[in-house]
């Protein structure tokens, strides 16, 4: 298994993997509009500060993705993970942990000091992140508001 920046020729494979993971339990996202999915994915991989990382197996297939952005702030650089996922048929086999370790090594080589992300408390990802060294910031709050 190897973590690398997303090669452009793997974009469609990444999009299909993302769709398969997040259209099923526990997420059940309803990506029925192919154009909207492509816009979302391009937002994550094609911006100036995007850092799309992928986990590739020994057969050169994508088995995981980490889609996020790099930001500069007063303590240095931060990698904000917007989407992190492992192929459904490879979950619960330790690959998520391996992927996070390799992401950490990649970021260290890029002089990035922090990883931040957000998840819901009622999904398995919450406990996965806790087991892998992430801490819940008690003083932080996530707000949302629907545009009327």
TrEMBL record:
Keyword Acyltransferase: yes
InterPro entries in alphabetical order: Acyl_CoA_acyltransferase, GNAT_dom
A molecular-function term among this protein's GO annotations: acyltransferase activity
Pfam family, one: Acetyltransf_1
SUPFAM superfamilies in UniProt: Acyl-CoA N-acyltransferases (Nat) (SSF55729)
Enzyme type, top EC level: transferase
Superkingdom to which the source organism belongs: Bacteria
UniProt entry keywords in alphabetical sequence: Acyltransferase, Transferase
N-acetyltransferase domain residues: 1-148
Entry EC number(s): 2.3.1.-
Protein name, entry field: GNAT family N-acetyltransferase
Source organism: Ornithinibacillus salinisoli
């Amino acid at each position: 298994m190897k973590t690398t920046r997303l090669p452009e020729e793997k974009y469609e494979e990444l999009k299909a993997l993302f769709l398969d993971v997040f259209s099923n339990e526990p997420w059940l996202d309803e990506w029925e509009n192919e154009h909207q999915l492509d816009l979302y994915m391009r937002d994550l991989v094609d911006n100036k500060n995007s850092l799309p990382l992928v986990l590739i197996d020994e057969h050169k297939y994508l088995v995981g993705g980490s889609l996020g952005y790099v930001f500069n702030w007063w303590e240095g650089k931060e990698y904000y993970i917007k989407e992190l996922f492992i192929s459904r048929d490879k979950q619960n086999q330790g690959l998520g942990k391996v992927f996070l370790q390799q992401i950490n090594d990649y970021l260290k080589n890029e002089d990035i000091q922090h990883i931040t992300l957000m998840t819901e408390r009622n999904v398995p990802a919450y406990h996965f992140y806790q087991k892998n060294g992430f801490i819940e910031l008690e003083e932080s709050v996530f707000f949302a508001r629907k545009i009327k």
